[in-house]
Specification:
With 384 residues, the chain is of the alpha/beta class. The protein folds into two domains: 132 residues, Lyase, Ornithine Decarboxylase, Chain A, domain 1 (Beta Barrel), CATH 2.40.37.10; 215 residues, TIM Barrel (Alpha-Beta Barrel). The chain contains twelve helices and 18 strands. Strand 17 and strand 18 form a beta hairpin. The two termini are 29 Å apart.
Length: 384
């Protein structure tokens, strides 16, 4: 590992996670835990930079995993509670999942029926519920969209509850997830429906998992209202342990992706080609889509010099967007794409043979530690 105090020596492209900003988020989450008497887990699907787990472990209670590999990472690197949910577990992986998981959440009664005989005494078993209410606007990220495969609806739950009465003693918790980077008012609406439909089962449970999508560390999030909502729920059901598992709230605005201008071409406008890629390194800019913020840049034509920023793949649509700058861009200039730590690093690919960005951590003392570099072997290892 390299230790550099001068950022100019960073490899390019490179994700840089800022430890001071990460700890600020963690401290706010700890406030919620302490004041509302709940447990907050790190959702690895949104943030799995295990080089920071020594810090995260000081504040959070464990990790939630979406399958075997994330569960192993949680067990090996986080070393606290492991909560594992999958839309459908694979038979050749489930035995290992039971060995390393504290909570296992099934997506259906069929899955519970399939794996009930493999459950270990230390496994606390839950079912995922589809609360059938959501204010998520983009269906790609809406777990409660019509015909969603995620979670059990009220009608299906009640039908299977009767059919599988012999298994009810196994169920210790319910899990719901209906949010995506939203404020507490969205949780309030979901919780009202969830409680109305399922509270008559709560007496036989030990815990409820409120899932993710809680944008707690965003500047305009009403943290006090969240604490009040959680405390009110706890007052109604004091025997229940409450879990939240935000992904974006941990890594939100904790770092950036630094890239370099490789070339500038002209085709109706100035087009800067970077050594990063929307398709490979920040796919949500195309899938969601959303406009990435760039340090020192503005909307097109707001500043004197406007450029289209493109990635270095052969995909025609590998376009980050159009931005304006105070001065002309030059080959070799650095471009800082803000807030590229949560739900970005976990989605990178090596499409077109493009190298994955290096990963660095800016420590609280200002030094920068390069914790991972990628090259040909990382590309080759994904193929055969």
């Amino acid at each position: 590992m390299d230790l550099n105090s001068n950022q100019n020596f960073l490899p390019s492209p490179c994700f840089v996670c800022e430890e001071e900003l990460l700890e600020k988020n963690l401290q706010l989450l700890q406030k919620v835990q302490n004041e509302a008497d709940v447990k907050i887990l790190l959702a690895l699907k949104g943030f799995s930079l295990f080089s920071t787990f020594d810090l995260c472990r000081e504040y959070l209670q464990g990790c939630c995993a979406s399958g075997l590999n994330e569960a192993i990472l949680a067990k090996e690197e986080f070393k606290k509670e492991v909560h594992t949910y999958s839309p459908a577990f694979k038979p050749n992986e489930f035995e290992k999942i039971t060995q390393i998981s504290n909570h296992i959440v099934f997506n259906s009664f069929n899955q519970l029926e399939t794996y009930k005989d493999q459950i270990k005494p230390h496994n606390s078993i839950g079912l995922r519920i589809n609360p059938e209410v959501s204010t998520v606007e983009v269906d790609l990220y809406n777990p409660c969209s019509p015909y969603s495969r995620l979670g059990i609806t009220k009608s299906e739950f009640e039908k299977n509850f009767t059919l599988h009465t012999s298994h009810l003693a196994l169920i210790e918790g319910l899990h719901f997830h209906a949010l995506c980077e939203q404020n507490v008012d969205a949780l309030e609406a979901v919780l009202e429906k969830f409680e109305k439909n399922f509270s008559h089962y709560f007496n036989q449970l030990e815990w409820i998992n409120f899932g993710g999508g809680h944008h707690i560390t965003r500047k305009d999030y009403d943290v006090d209202a969240l604490i009040a909502l959680l405390k009110a729920f706890k007052s109604r059901y004091p025997h229940l342990q409450i879990y939240l598992e935000p992904g974006e709230a941990i890594g939100w605005q904790t770092g950036y992706l630094e890239a370099t201008v490789l070339d500038i071409v002209q085709n109706g406008m100035q087009i800067a080609i970077l050594d990063t890629s929307a398709e490979c390194h920040m796919p949500d800019t195309l899938a969601m889509p959303y406009r990435a913020e760039i340090r020192g840049a503005s909307l097109p034509n707001e500043k004197p010099y406007t450029y289209r920023l493109g990635g270095n793949t052969c995909l025609a649509g590998d376009i980050i967007g159009d931005y304006s700058f105070d001065t002309p861009l030059q080959i070799g200039d650095k471009i800082i794409l803000e807030d590229m730590i949560h739900y970005t690093m976990v989605k990178t690919t090596t499409f077109n043979g493009i190298n994955l960005p290096s990963i660095a951590i800016k420590r609280k003392d200002g030094t920068i530690e390069i914790v991972r570099k990628y090259g040909y072997e990382s590309y080759k290892d994904r193929l055969s």
